[in-house]
Amino acid sequence: MPVNHQVVYELLEETVGPDYVSDDPAVLEAYSRTGWVLGRKLKRRPGFVVLPSSVQEVQAIVKIANKYKVPFIPVGSFLHWSCQATYPETIILDFKRMDKILKIDEKNKYAVIEPYVTYTQLQAEAMKRGLWLPVPSSGGNTSVLANHLFCGSHFAMHRIPYYARAVLGVEWVLPSGEILKLGSAGYGNDYFWGEGPGPDLRGLMRGYVGALGGLGVVTKMAVRLYPWTGPDAFHCRGVFPEKVVEFPKDLAKLYLAIFPSTENAVNALYDICRAEIGMSLHLLSTTMAMAPMAKSREEFLSLLEAFKDIKEFILFMSFKTSPRVMEYDRKVIQKIVEENKGYLIPDEMVESLQEGIPETIRSAVSMRILNPMGGYDVFRSWAESLDKLLDQLKQAKAFLEEKYRDFIHFYYMIPLELGHYGHIELSILYDPLTQLDEAMECQNIGIRQDAEQKMYVTGSAGPAHDILGPSYGNYQLLLRKIKKKLDPNNVSNPPYPIDVTKI
User: Fewer CB within 10 Å: N-end or C-end of the chain?
Assistant: First the structure.
């Protein structure tokens, strides 16, 4: 161990107390990897795990890291590989003690939260007040704050904005240890507004995807909430995975439509967006739809075989604001599907799937979607017009089917904000015991294909910026300047958002 390990440990112990810091190998092992392909390949134990309880303790930890040149990583749900240590003696900041909903403003529809508040926790409290926010596909156990800082996609982006647009006031501990407050929090105690005073720095804080802990620690955030017309609680019976939610049947309705081609399906997406109907709208591969229905790998493979003739379908969900609105949605969706040569699956066949509506509101099956084969990773991920996404999807699918036919792949396409643009993820499922190196190779090829085709990539991080940057105006040079300016000692989760050791 380096000479300063014990010194750093004692300072951390002084800061948070002896019960909330550890360098026990058994504890560190739990923070050594995630389930992504890079997480498995880059497994490394951190040097310390520390559980702060306040912004003052976070600030003190960051200053210790700067003084002794020890990297630190703020983690939320620990789902992404950027949560793993890439350098020895890294300090992991685990926010389990900072899990409070500090405020829910019913009139102005926002909540102020600490880092470890989960979607399930906040959604349950918001629904009691006639409010809600959609849960991302990563699941209801995901940190709301972390998900608003990183990615932020969810099932209702057709109607409700991507969470990069939902951040309001923020309390931010910079990599230097200085505390910066954004928006209305900067000139008072309230967090209701995200812009100003002066420059709006939220884009610097996260951009489209996020800085992955590379630009400091956000310790408090206000997020938007939205009107909720459903029950104030979800009542359940049974035991997971057989648990059933008792949900009002008139609150929402699912429609599934099959089309003769993906082009027809995308044209239907455009028409639905122009009509401005519904809450949720997806183009899903059948593979993705089967994954959450299966309770084992064997059942998943059996379902794929049973539905092999159906490649994809549109899933549309109408949400109750009034009976007249739901009836209008029904008539419009029927007309659009017919005009685009599609076929609506009869209600009696979709009836069993109506029980899955609560899953779209408070997801609990994300691990069944991601891990039916044991390994999962995103091969390509873009934000573009739906037409452009369609072209790229065709090429990427053809490549996988030719070069990586042993992988199972699935995809979803979501129109955002009524079709102004779209988001797509094409992912691979693989066996990590036998296909890990092949999956790593496949992911690297995907990054280089994005650079060649100049697509707007939604998941670039770390080394990927230097591969993609020259195709996008050399933005990586500016990003490197930002990292060096805000994090002069390179201690905030290096090498994210970009490696500053490169010239």
Answer: C
The two beta strands, 131-132 and 226-227, are: antiparallel
Residue 1: the pLDDT is 47
Residue 265 belongs to a domain: yes
Q: Considering the domain boundaries, does residue 155 fall inside one? A: yes
Quick: pLDDT tens for 331-348.
999 999 999 999 999 988
Number of folded domains that form the chain: 5
Instruction: Name the nearest CA neighbour of 215 among 497, 499, 456.
Output: 497
- pLDDT tens per residue across span 395-427: 999 999 999 988 999 899 999 999 999 999 999
245 and 364 part of one domain: yes
64 within domain boundaries: yes
- Residues 243, 365, single domain; the answer is yes
* Residues 421 and 399 grouped into a single domain: yes
> Which of 71, 96, 121 delimits the end of a domain?
96
Tokens of 382: 């873009």
Instruction: Tally the residues of the chain.
Output: 503
CA distance 27 to 46: 10
Q: C-alpha 74: how far from its chain's center?
A: 16
Cα 487 to Cα 11, 295, 475: the distances in Å are: 21, 45, 18
Residue 165 lies in a domain: yes
Q: Whole-angstrom Cα distance, residue 34 to residue 43? A: 8
Specify the residue for token string 């643009």.
Answer: 421
- Closest-CA residue to 278 (of 255, 260, 298): 255
Range of the domain at 23: 5-96
Exposed, middle or buried, 22 (CB in 10 Å: 0-12/13-18/19+)?
A: buried
Partners of 245 in the beta sheet? 236
Which tokens in the block code for residue 159? 């109607």
Question: How far apart, in whole angstroms, are the C-alpha atoms of residue 99 and residue 96?
Answer: 6
Q: Write the DSSP symbol of residue 111.
A: E
CB 344 within 8 A of CB 257: yes
Answer yes or no: do 239 and 332 share one domain: yes
Could you give the C-alpha distances from 162 to 5, 106, 134, 191, 415, in angstroms and in order? 41, 21, 10, 20, 11
